Amino acid sequence: MVAGTVVLKGESFVLVPEGEYQRMRDLTQELMEGDGPPLPTPDAKGNMPAVEYMRAGLARRLLRSRRQAGLTQVELARRAGVRVETLCRIEKGKMTPSTLIFSKLQRVLEQAQTEASP
Questions:
Q1: Got the DSSP string for the chain?
Q2: Is there a single domain that holds both residue 2 and residue 58?
Q3: Tens digits of per-residue pLDDT, 9-22?
Q4: Residue 66 is part of a domain; what is its CATH number?
């Protein structure tokens, strides 16, 4: 992606390709309006707590992927060999999954997406 800047009436603007702008706009809308835990509020300097932000973002992506795959929490947990309570805590942004649990969930979601594709 190539970005550039332009100054109009003393104000600086960033120019990006339209496709990249659409992607960023859609992602922002998804993050702000999406299901799942809310993103943490930035502090006075605009910084967000990294762990809480990562948990919320991961929870939202997991929730979105699970729904796109057409799976319930119970189905995903059963197929991945994970407790439903654990999956629920991850989707609520209350806990960070271990790499093992994350890998299991990812594998099942990828399989479900492949099965759903024509």
A1: ---EEEEETTEEEEE--HHHHHHHHHHHHHHHH-SSSPPPPP-TTS---HHHHHHHHHHHHHHHHHHHTT--HHHHHHHHT--HHHHHHHHTTSSPPPHHHHHHHHHHHHHHHHHH--
A2: no
A3: 999 998 989 988 88
A4: 1.10.260.40
